[in-house]
Design a protein that fits this description.
alpha+beta, Nuclear Transport Factor 2, Chain: A, 2 domains, four-stranded antiparallel sheet, 33% helix, elongated
Length: 211
Amino acid sequence: MKKISTLLNSPKRILFFTICVILISVILASAFIRSSSSAADKSVIGPEKGALIALDNAGYNLQQVSDLSTAYGNKDFDTVYKIRFTADGYRFYYVIESTSGEILKYEKNPVSSSDASDIEDDSGQFSSQEGASQEQNTSSQSAYIDIEAAKSIALADSGVSSASAVFTKAKLDREDGIYVYEIEFYVGNYEYEYEINAVDGKIMDKSIEED
């Protein structure tokens, strides 16, 4: 305490000490702000970039795959994109870290017969329904437009080229007794969603949202 009292025994020394404290505080505050800014700048790559990373790793482009879907989730405390698509008779599954783009998991499995029992088969067409006979299924398939036609309808309506769009969802579903294609795709920061009548190709609902 004596030493401190000696240091502060004159107005000049008190002023000098105060200036030093202020400078140290400013330096510490600046370091904290830079650290916070750096953490804030660590943004996610986006689902479209995640899908392109997976496709590039598998050796395909958007036109060569079907059933492409992306989902945002968590894995071992990391936020990740879960990418799925089908190509050349195989079902691909990727888990990609959402900020670095690192591939955390990769699976490639043959498309099994069980996959064909879903509403949508690998070509995006109607496959089978519970209680329906094989003859009824064949007839039903011919009654629906295919999934590529539904995608084309959505792209044409939005004015977006196929090269610019990253599809995250394309599936046949049933709503209020009507079969519709649910189409979702990204272009930059915009997400497009469409519901298209699977019989006549009429657009039943659509929306555009900015991320």
